[in-house]
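User: Quick sanity check before I run a bigger batch. Here is a single chain. Can you write out its predicted 3D structure?
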Amino acid sequence: MTPVLLTPSLPDALYLLDYFGLAVFAISGALLAAEKRQTLVTFLFFAVVTGVGGGTVRDLLIGAPVFWVHRNATLGICLAAGLAVWFTARHRWNERAILWFDALGLAAYSTYGASKALAFGVAPVPAFAMGVLTACAGGIIRDVLAGDPSILMRPEIYVTAAALSSALFVLLHVVGLPALPAAAIAFIAAFALRALAITMGLKLPGYSER
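Assistant: Done. Predicted structure follows.
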């Protein structure tokens, strides 16, 4: 008999956070394809890779069933996001739309990634790392495929926002706060920090030899 890997249950609202992050990251991937004037195939590919990339790496590392393999809805959301951007006139998208969709996805996925890792028995510090990885890996893969500098190589406050969300969720979990308010606090904090970085041009200082 083939062993069945049981999936720990999470509050329904956290699964909604997962789908939300998936959708907005997929849109951000398709928007980058639009910016590059690519074909429909590239739109769909970028939407899928950006949407599922981080979660796939996370699930492989924590020993969970890869989240999109056993559900039709996951890839369906990514493909629908790609099609929605393809059939929308380019002028309807603000030039900075990709940044804002990416910010929403970052906040959602970093929070959900940490919560899923904790649900699978991952220790708090690695669970924190899984939240950051979930939020950032898809965008990094997208940028590399598009030939753009990876977010890791730019001084923007991006990974820092994901780290804030993930760390907050893990910390609040450790002190015993229920999952839903912890997720809300972590999501708002990450999005607020990333929004400040976008609107005010906040950047991290680079290394300088003394």
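Residues 1-6 have pLDDT under 50 and may be disordered.

User: Great, the batch can go ahead then.
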